[in-house]
Amino acid sequence: MQKQELASWLCRYRLSKYRQDIGSYQGREQEFHQLFTPYEVIEGEGNCLLNSGIDEIWDLVTGVVSGSDHIFDNAHAQIGVGDSDTAAEATQTDLQAASNKTYKGMESSYPLSTSQKVTFKASFGDAEANYNWNEWVVKQSTSAKCLNRKVENLGTKSSGTWTLEVDITLS
């Protein structure tokens, strides 16, 4: 009997839309989320794991690269959103939007790593990313390597705060 090893990459995301601006809660984002209730929550699954992200993971695991120029920690991980609806392909390296794209760093205490899962979370305040959200990525700010890309129309932001939380589980 031949044994076959299987691995699974599962991405789940949640977009919470608030009428309030998170701007004055910098560093205290958890307080904002406790005080205010989103008027809409969109949850979904799936994304396209990008070849450049796969290579970056293996380079980190093997020590080919290291340090703040490559790790996805609180100071260097970002979530980017854009308005391109170009289908996701593994060979892409970033958002496909020509001009309407915005990258935000992590909320305090993110990313979190527990039980074979990492959670990235970023909030886009009142004056940020006000356009149609058709795509998103998780990106390392210094190396500019993106782990993944998702294409889905999440709506048009014009004000308030939209918080995108991305869970990636490996098993």
Helix content: 10-25%
Largest sheet, if any?
5 strands, antiparallel
Supply the number of helical segments.
Answer: 2
Give the end-to-end Cα distance, rounded to a whole number of Å: 23 Å
Low-confidence stretches: none
Q: What is the number of strand segments? A: 10
Oligomer: single chain
Strand percent estimate: 35-45%
**Strands side by side in the biggest sheet:** 2-1-10-7-6
Specify the overall morphology: globular
Mean pLDDT, rounded to whole units? 96
Q: N-to-C SSE series? A: EHEEHEEEEEEE
Structural class by sheet pairing and helices: mainly beta
Count of distinct structural domains: 1
Q: Work out the radius of gyration.
A: 16 Å
Structure in words:
With 171 residues, this protein is mainly beta. It has one domain. It contains 2 helices and 10 strands; from the N terminus they run βαββαβββββββ. The protein has helices spanning 29-35, 51-62, and strands at residues 9-18, 40-45, 48-49, 77-82, 101-105, 112-114, 117-124, 132-140, 146-156, 161-170. The strands form 2 sheets. A 5-stranded antiparallel β-sheet has the order 2-1-10-7-6, with no helix packed on it. A 5-stranded antiparallel β-sheet has the order 3-9-8-4-5. A hairpin with a 2-residue loop joins strand 6 (112-114) and strand 7 (117-124). The radius of gyration is 16 Å and the shape is globular. 33% of the residues are buried.
